[in-house]
Amino acid sequence: MRTHDAVFELFLNYACQAKCAFCYNPPITDELLRRELSFAQAAEALYAAFRGGAKKLNLHGGEVTLRDDLPKILRLARKIGFTEVTLVTNGVRLGEARYARSLAAAGLTHVRLSVHASDAKDHDAIVAVPGAFDRILSAIGHLRKQEIPVGLNFVLVRDNAAALPAFLRRFVLREKIEDVIVYFPHERGMMALNAGAIGVTYAEARAPLLESAALLDKAGKLSALLIANVPPCAAPELADLLLDWEREPGEAASSMLNPEGRRSDLNAMKDGQKWAVPACRACALKDRCRGVEPEYARRHGDAEFRALAAVPPALSEAARR
Which domains are seen in the chain, by residue range? Predict the structure, then answer.
């Protein structure tokens, strides 16, 4: 189990320059573009979350750098006492050196850039923003000058799955990025509309995931790879790299506030997004695993989910200690 301090996820807006077909958010409409938290709402939420025990803050959208008051929100978060403030962004605006410096000066401590290919042609096609990849490369340089750690988020789809090892070779081995989280997309929002055209199965993703792990392990960089939204039965050899599969009753309370002002308990939300398939009943991890996503099982069936006869060594009690 990966323990963590309480984290507050502040989801500020829906607006975004990118048009990613795998997005968790619904299709952008004029009405949706108008939905965002006011600064006053964001400030109230920050104070409440800190009083509730959160010390780490993640800022999400949409694309939060489209908000002109982002530096003001950062300064307030640090003033309140948040020790880590992470920006999750497509990186387009951070390609501007002055803007990157302004966020660093406001108190930004970490950045996670969404990057989905190892070259400009493929990445820009996926996000539908010409020039996005080159701006990301510039952003990495600007953030490093400000000594802000950079991690990457990579969403696994049909067009980029086979190229994952090349992506890691470039960004982890050559560019020395600290970590990459590979996300198997949720079939919600835009992805619910496009899963049939761009989605991959766990079975199809298995080979590039195993190849990627072997590549980084050989280079002594396996700890740079994390994989989200994949149950252990789909990749037991990679069980120690998987995120969010396990029920977390002992974890610090983490919450999220969305642009409509609705607050969610993150662990309860993650539990509610999964269900058990028949194989779960006999699985060695049945008392720990959240299960599989119902949307995935409805689309692809449950034949590829096999009960684990034993707990993978990396998930044993000894390994957890």
Answer: 7-273 (3.20.20.70)
